[in-house]
Each structure stands twice: as structure tokens, then as C-alpha cells.
Amino acid sequence: GQPHRVAVVAGQSAALLGWPGQQVDATTTLDPVRAGGTKGSGVGTAHFTLGSQSETVPLRLASTVPEPSWWWRLLHG
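^ thats the sequence. predicted structure below, dont judge the formating
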């Protein structure tokens, strides 16, 4: 189908204790999102690591993913 960009936001905050200049490693894992996915639905995780500390934060849709138009549905049945 037609790809759409939808913003993703953190579902909660994360806290790591560090010193100025230390680098925090961050990785994200995103799940496939179907048309009609509703605002606030879980779509993956963000994982932060600093030394031996780590935090995992759920990622959520910032808005609802648009459904295909009736025209697209007619042509792609």
C-alpha cells in the first residue's frame, strides 16, 4: 500500500545517572503498523544504555494512522 509517516513518542521517561560528556547508547525496535493504528498504540521500544545502566521505554503512536481511501480500496480490492 501507500506508506504514511506517523510520529512516534515515548510512552514514559527514562533516567540514567552520568557525567557531562558521557555518551548514552540508544537503539530502537519498531513493529509493523497497520492502517488504522490508533493514537497511543504500542509500536516498539527504545533502549538506552550508559555503562552498566539500562532503561527500556515503550514507543507509542502520536496520532492515528490513516485508513486507505475508498478509491485506493476500489483499485486494490
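The beta strands are 8-10, 25-30, 42-50, 53-61.
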